[in-house]
Design goal:
- The chain has 67 residues and is an all-alpha fold.
- The protein has three helices and no strands.
- It has one domain.
- The model has no long low-confidence stretch (mean pLDDT 94).
Length: 67
Amino acid sequence: MLALLHDDKPIVVRQCLAALHEVVLYRTELCEAIKAELETIDLSKDKDSMSPLIKKDMDELLKFIDG
C-alpha cells in the first residue's frame, strides 16, 4: 500500500491515504513506517488543484496517527 502513495494518479494516492486510516486503527505497529513514507511524498508532481487535497489528506492521517 505504501508504494501506492507515489502513484502517478492523484486519486489513487487519495484513496490509499483514506484506506491507511483503517490500517493504523488495527495495525498500530505500522504507524512509524507510514509516517516515514508520508514524508517522502512529492506533491510537486501533482496538479495545483490536487496538491492541496492530498496535503489535507496527509495531515488528517498524521493527526489520526498521533491521536
